[in-house]
Amino acid sequence: MKKIDKIYEGKAKILYTTEDPDLLIQHFKDDATAFNAQKKGTIQEKGIMNNRISAKIFEYLGTQGISTHFVKMLSDRDMLIKKVTIVPIEVIVRNRAAGSMCRMLGVTEGFQLASPVLEFCYKNDGLGDPVINEYHIQALNLATDAEVKGISRMALAINGHLKKFFLKLNIELIDFKLEFGRYHGDIILADEISPDTCRLWEVGTGNKLDKDRFRRDLGNIEEAYQEVLRRVTS
Ligand code: TMP
Predict the structure, then answer these.
(1) What is the pTM (predicted TM-score) of this model?
(2) Quick one: pLDDT at residue 127?
(3) Which atom of ligand 1 lies nearest, measured to the CA of 197?
(4) Quick one: which atom of ligand 1 is closest to the CA of 101?
(5) Which parts of the chain have pLDDT scores under 70?
(6) How many CA atoms lie within 13 A of 212 on its CB side?
(7) DSSP class of residue 68?
(8) Which terminus of the chain, N or C, has less C-beta within 10 A?
(9) Angle at 194 between CA 154 and CA 200, to 5 degrees
(10) Top CATH class, 6-82
């Protein structure tokens, strides 16, 4: 499968058409941004690591009955995916408080939530992806009620699967962000799942193995991503 036209370039990935109208190539870059692109940088070989990590996780979720856009890996930085229409909502699931939840609610980082928190953000960089709720989603026609119900159910199921998956690797899943797409009438999981889009803390040490190392200048960023890749593919 070869790339034909570039149809989208985001902060971390590029999408290309292929000869099959139902399939795209998702290319992973090394570019890293944080705080709505106010902070910019490069994480060496991040694209290669996130492509591999995402592929492994999509394959695993597939075995657990979750439909995803992943078709197959094509090369170091490229994966073949189903062409979806992205639902313009970023879905966040949290198991412990971190990041914006701490800022918004004054909770201490690492606070163990009594139950998982599901959050929606409007996918709009110009607005800084503001938090919204089901009423906004319906009122703005971002998704139907049935889609929101399906997305919520899938996101919480994915949380259960991923918590187990990472715990086996001695990693605790603190929170993560998902995107979903419409594909021939179905809602399927899209985008990526990687240390860019998850908070991953090593069990025991609490060592951060994710993009917070970049966001907060903690150092050893590449090593952290490499470690996640090593464990995910072990
Ligand atoms: P937050 O605490 O900054 O809201 O982030 C929650 C989770 O979502 C965290 O695992 C990082 C991920 N995330 C993204 O993947 N993309 C984003 O643009 C943001 C803000 C967060």
Answers:
(1) 0.97
(2) 96
(3) 15
(4) 2
(5) none
(6) 16
(7) B
(8) C
(9) 90
(10) alpha beta
